[in-house]
Design a protein that fits this description.
By secondary structure, this protein is of the alpha/beta class. The chain is built from seven helices and eight strands; from the N terminus they run βαβαβαβαββαβαβα.
Length: about 200
């Protein structure tokens, strides 16, 4: 029996990674694509605050009136961790791009002053209490894994592809033999991502 098709997408959220921004290559490519090909689609790619608690509050407020059945979220790295949290809260579709699995563990080494990848003059302080805030956003096992597409690169130099794959058990999985954390070949994955979101 074939699955019930999802209704057409009306709202799309993009969540960037740690030290990243809406100016990331993937975020800007998605924004340009939405603007040119899907102008009726509501697009939101917020600058996430360093505090996970503040990021969650920003998302809760921004998504309060979004239609759950016709929204989706894309998240890269730490944004993939947040995207999982959003998708589990909203029951919406999610695309995870090399998603962080346990940032509360991995980001302990980054407590202190950090700078933005895209604007090195922009600095922020990653506080020790942010670790507990990250832990509080752990979503647990995927309740509807069929609503997820994960693009995972074995060549990721930051995150362990085996851990990411285990986290996304049951999801639609695009496992790349090489690649890198930034998914420098992002363009080649756009047709599959758009198809999954019903935008192809």
């Amino acid at each position: 029996m074939s699955p019930t098709p999802s209704p057409p997408l009306t709202h799309l959220l993009y969540l960037h990674g740690f030290r990243s921004s809406p100016r990331s290559v993937k975020a800007e490519k998605m924004a340009a694509l939405v603007a040119s090909r899907y102008p009726a689609l509501h697009w939101w790619c917020p600058q996430l605050p360093p505090s996970p608690q503040d990021a969650a509050a920003l998302l809760n407020e921004g998504l309060r009136h979004w239609p759950r059945e016709t929204m989706a979220v894309i998240g890269s790295s730490l944004g993939g961790y947040y995207a999982t949290w959003v998708a589990e809260q909203c029951g919406c579709r999610a695309v995870l791009l090399n998603p962080a699995v346990n940032p509360a563990r991995d980001l302990r080494a980054h407590i202190g002053e950090q700078s933005s990848w895209h604007e090195p003059a922009d600095t922020f302080f990653f506080k020790p209490e942010f670790i507990d805030e990250l832990q509080a956003l752990q979503a647990g096992p995927l309740t509807q894994p069929e609503r997820y597409l994960a693009v995972i690169a074995k060549g990721d130099e930051v995150l362990d592809w085996r851990e990411m794959t285990a986290r996304c058990a049951g999801a639609q999985l695009r496992l790349l033999e090489g690649g890198d954390h930034a998914l420098s070949d992002f363009d080649t994955h756009l047709p599959e991502i758009l198809g999954f979101l019903g935008l192809a």
